[in-house]
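COURSE: Structural Biology Practicum
ASSIGNMENT: Worksheet 4, Part C
STUDENT ID: 0417
INSTRUCTIONS: Below are two proteins. For each, the amino acid sequence is given first, followed by its structure token string. Answer the questions at the end about the second protein only.

PROTEIN I
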Amino acid sequence: MILKFLSIASQLEKAVLTSPHVGVGAADPVIDRLVDDLWLAHAEIDLSARSEPLRGAAYRYAARLAEVTRGEHAEASALRGLQVQFFDAAYDDMWPGQRRTAGILSRRDES
């Protein structure tokens, strides 16, 4: 579910960043389909995530990405912080009680 959401979000970001129509009111069927797919992937996370932080981070990331596609936020850089929050929440949801250290999983109480 998380990888599906990230795959769609990545495709949507690429489509938005390369589309000449974003923010000018013109509909792009590819982008519209990706936005729909993103919200469906978000719904999967919302239904199956173990933690509220992951649900919230997924929603905020998807909502901001949808806003970028509609031209409500001109800078895609506004997505980066939300993307990081989503990754952190996803990691904590999948491996609670552990943290990343130099690419290695370790228990939080072992540091």
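PROTEIN II
(use this one for the questions)
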Amino acid sequence: MCADDPDNVGAREQHVAALYRPAVAVRTRMRSTTGRERVTLRERLKAVCAQCADSATGLLDSGLLTDEERREQIRGFLRAVRPEEPPEPGAGRGGPTP
């Protein structure tokens, strides 16, 4: 739906959230895994986090999402999948951790 209608803000928000959920699942699974499987999961986590970050950044940069509370939710997902990024000025609360 996002590809067919890039101005559909609701679909783009849901897409970011949908990409975030697998990042959390992979991260949780990594905590109880060792060895080669952990390496595989780490690579999967990087890929899922990159997809989520790209979608979140695209939505934030589009200017379509004007509600500040909803923007903060997307920023929270972005901070969680890209923790090495410094928080935006004025961002008061931390994002969820994948």
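ANSWER KEY EXCERPT:
Q1: The two ends are 25 Å apart (CA to CA).
Q2: Helices lie at 9-30, 35-62, 68-81.
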